[in-house]
Each structure stands twice: as structure tokens, then as C-alpha cells.
Amino acid sequence: MPRKEILDRIHKYVEPFHITKGKRFRLKDFDPGETCGLNLAKGEAADLLQRGTEWLAEEQEMLYAQDRWSLLLVFQAMDAAGKDGTIKHVMSGVNPQGCQVFSFKQPSAEDLDHDFMWRYAKSLPERGRIGIFNRSYYEEVLVVRVHQEILKRQRLPDPLISKRIWDERLADIAHFEDYLTRQGTIILKFFLHLSRDEQKKRFVKRLDRPDKHWKFSTADVHERRYWDDYMHAFEEAIRATASEQAPWFVVPADNKWFTRLVVAAAIVETVETLDLTYPKVDAKKKKEIVAARAALAKEK
Ligand code: ATP
Ligand code: MG
User: Fold this and answer.
1) Among 29, 131, 192, 268, which one is least packed by beta carbons within 10 Å?
2) What distance in Å separates the CA atoms of residue 49 and residue 47, rounded to the nearest whole number?
């Protein structure tokens, strides 16, 4: 299938979830169960996902060879929304050398001795690489906002903690992202949007499967009580930080196959706009190649 045709086909699975302006964004306008009329049974989704991941693998080789742009993929979600599985599937064809994955958990004592961006800034992708943040600096306006006792542990000077702190943090994040994009980092942010009911189903399934018990945590179940607070925090974060250069994708997450398709499609579409090519070989290099070939042919 020609690339143009694939691009046309995937566009309708990206566009509805692509947020570039936050002002009018409301989470309630988005349905976690949406599949855009696509039916898994028909095999079209699997086919598109496979083409998407193969394509991404090719583009990543060029990204690496060019060594100019870098790509930062941010994944945020409630537990059991499928971050790990999505990352695994979407990046399945990509050369591991060109890819760096960081999973951010609770901050260490050393992290807490610094400004909140410190640990994330240290992990940004090098030029030519794809960096994946499995959770990110957005936790600083999500979990920290929902559980304000975490903010206390950050030991900010008292006069700096006011009612405006969340708006200030969101503005700092937006500026930080502007800065990064001006440095050649392409930023895509994915909120895997899961419904509370589907989360419950997935937790129950984990309890039924011994091979999934390691993923079970009582704290995760407890966290369900704060669902509405989290949704509010997500909405505020998306409203304040969605932009053309660092868009959010509010990806329906009640159907894992659809989540993966939308994420793969969004990445492919974006990378395609970079118009990547392998670096041009100049006349001097061409001569060197001819000479090297001759030298190798002469070897006994
Ligand atoms: P898994 O799929 O394995 O459950 P996970 O990303 O949920 O992956 P966990 O170790 O279960 O990993 O959870 C990490 C926890 O760390 C989350 O509850 C998250 O909210 C918390 N966390 C991440 N960043 C911060 C932060 N900056 N401050 C406080 N807590 C944080
Ligand atoms: Mg977890």
C-alpha cells in the first residue's frame, strides 16, 4: 500500500483526539470507549498497526542517521490504562539503540533535593533518538496536586506555596516544552483515557490471573477514590499545555487495540511531517567509498 494511502487512512483515527488548543478542552467531550466505527474482528486495525510500526522503524533509522531532531513521547494515564503494553507494541519494530525509555516512579531523596524538573531534564532524549517517558513531569501537576502531602515533601520555601502553585507549575511546563521544541525536540503527549468502570474490570482480571498478581497493588485500588480529582487535574493540565508544537492526544483507552492504533498513527503522522531522509553523501565521501571498495578488493 502506498504511503500516501496509509496516511489518509490513519488520519481519521488521530484527528479527533489531537488537542492543540486547550482553551475549550473538556474531558467529558471524550469517550474512553470510542473506536471510530472500526471493528477489531475485521482485521483492519491489526493491519494498520503493523504498517504503522514498520513505518516508524524505518523513519527512526533516518532520525538516527540525521542526528538532528529528537522525539519525546510522554505517556500519562490512570493505572491499568495500558501504558506499558502500548509502548511495547508501538515501539516493537524500532532499533533499541535509537530509543530510550524512562519510567518515573516516586522521587528519590536526591530528586527531592532539586527543582521538580531536574530528574526529567536529565533523561531527555539525545538528538537522533526517541525518548519515551512512562509517566513524566506531568506527575508534578497530577499525583502531587491530588495528594498535597507529596508537595510538602518537596521542601519548597513557604512563601512560594500559594493557591496559584498549580497554574504556575503548568505555565513552567508549557514554557519548558516551548524551549525544548525550539531546540529540535518534537514532543507528543498521550493521555490514555480509561473509564473508571473499565479500570475496575482490569483490576478484577488481574486478581483472577496469578501471572498478573505482581502488577496488583492495594494502593492502586485505594487511588480510585480520587478518580474525580485526577480527572480534574488531567483536564487542567491539558488545557494549560496543549499547543501546536507540543500537542496532547486524548486516546480512548477502554479498547487496547484501538489505543495502540491511535498512538502509532499519531507518531507516524508527526514524524512524516519532518520529511526525513538519509544524510546526503558528498563528492569527497563518494570518492572515499570507491577507494575503500578498491582497497578491500585488493586484500588477499
Ligand atoms: P505499573 O504499570 O508497573 O503499575 P506504574 O507507572 O504505575 O507502572 P508504579 O511503581 O506502580 O508504576 O507507580 C509509580 C507511582 O509513582 C505512581 O503512583 C505515581 O503516581 C508515582 N509518582 C510518579 N512520579 C511522582 C512524583 N513526581 N511524585 C510523587 N509520586 C510520583
Ligand atoms: Mg502502578
Assistant:
1) 29
2) 5
Q: Does the pLDDT at position 172 exceed 80?
A: yes
Alpha carbons within 13 angstroms on the beta-carbon side of residue 11 total 9
Distance CA 264, CA 86 (A): 9
The finding on whether 117 has its CB within 6 A of some atom of ligand 1 is no
The tens digit of pLDDT for each residue in 33-57 reads: 999 998 877 788 888 889 889 999 9
**For ligand 1, atom 13: residue with the closest CA:** 105
Query: What is the model's pTM?
Result: 0.95
- 233-256 pLDDT, tens per residue? 999 999 999 999 999 999 999 999
CB 151 less than 6 A from any atom of ligand 1: no
For domain 3-298, give the CATH superfamily. P-loop containing nucleotide triphosphate hydrolases (3.40.50.300)
Beta strand spans in the chain (E): 18-19, 70-77, 99-103, 130-134, 185-193, 248-252
What are the residue ranges spanned by the domains of the chain? Answer: 3-298
* Shortest-distance Cα residue to atom 20 of ligand 1: 143
